[in-house]
Amino acid sequence: MNHSFENTLEFASNCDKNDKLAAFKDQFILPxxxxxxxxxxxxxxxxxxxxxxxxxxxxxxxxxxxKWGVEGHFHGRKPWFHYHKFxxxxxxxxVGAKPIEVVVMNQLTVNLHLLLVSxxxxxxxxxxxxxxxxxxxxxxxxxxxxxxxxxFSYNDAVIxxxxxxxxxxxxxxxxxxxxxxxxxxxxxxxxxxxxxxxGQYFNIPEITKKAHEVGAIAGFDLAHxxxxxxxxxxxxxxxxxxxxxxxxxxxxxxxxxxxxxxxKHCTNPETPRFAGWWGYQENKRFLMQKGYLPxxxxxxxxxSNAPVFGMxxxxxxxxxxxxxxxxxxxxKSLVLTDYLEFILNEAKKTNANLSFEIITPSSERGAxxxxxxxxxxxxxxxxxxxxxxxxxxxxxxxxxxxxxPLYNSFEDVYHLGQAFNHFQG
Length: 425
Description:
This protein is α/β, with parallel strands linked by helices. It contains 14 helices and 15 strands. The chain has helices at about 10-15, 55-70, 70-75, 85-95, 110-120, 135-150, 155, 170-180, 205-215, 265, 310-325, 325-350, 375-385, 410-420, and strands spanning about 30, 40, 50, 100-105, 130, 160, 185-190, 215-220, 240-245, 255-260, 355-360, 370-375, 390, 390-395, 400. The chain has a 7-stranded mixed sheet with strand order 4-10-9-8-7-5-6, with helices on both faces. It has a 4-stranded antiparallel sheet with strand order 11-12-15-14, covered by helices on one side. The protein has a two-stranded antiparallel sheet with strand order 1-3. Strand 14 and strand 15 form a beta hairpin. Helix 5 (about 110-120) runs parallel beside helix 6 (about 135-150) and helix 8 (about 170-180) runs parallel beside helix 9 (about 205-215). The mean pLDDT is about 95.
């Protein structure tokens, strides 16, 4: 962190005046409290804010449904028959992929199961999955059920890597060493892009390279990475990935998910998969014939027709990302998160009632900082809420704070620091 920061409102205001992305905040609806006062929102890592264009995007599809009925599939302003195509290029930009490698469909854990069907193909000798200990529960449950489905026990088939004693996050060299130690038995290396609890940004290219070196597949859950960090999935040669769209991608609660499948796999019709009619070759789909002929690319993993209303909101959000540019957002995020770290450390110096440790690595992180607290942690979190600041509590004792560069400002971070200063325990 090589910045000359100041813990003053004037400094924060000047940063915002010089921020080329500052105007994007006006494109989102800020939550208000029971007194109708706007809140400072640092919870985009859990649920992003609503774009002001979301309502109109849904209304367009409601109007076309009303006007056209079933014919909206072909005559609507954005025909539903190939609605996913309106999102593909924008989604590919966000994750650094070729459009053919990306499709938006289903929800995140559904997609992870579908991808594991394709890429977890265990043999008697090579059947193990390596992942981080303490992964998001849905990932743990998905992996558990997948290995059991193939007749293996979790404790034998799944290798969870834990941080070293006294540390909170994983060292890349330790991950690579475990892969090497299990090189003859590992089938899939499966990690988060950004760890949900600690906020650690894993070294995706190095993990992928090592997995391939030992003959394994590399896959990632990018729920906390998509829209947060600058990904280059194709260049990194990642095999598969999936992400949700309701966190940093601001597309609404429980909304659709995106998937990435490397070109070498998704353009091969022999790559195994579960099939459904919306992944069938588009020009023959309504012939209703037997025998699955997949659409080329990741689109060949679709099962059902598009949930248009949810996709409409996602498209509205992706259009904002396209205008802002993921590279520009990441550049702002790095400085904004550094400023957050500075402000938190300043508060700690000032207020003896504060006791926390930032466990998110300064060199490996996205927008989120995770604060490991003491037995007053929940009281501190409640104090923030009562100060009109929305952060995130994760049991047993972590406060997650995530300044999203699309709608958070340096002034937001400064005011957060003031709330920390006033905590009395």
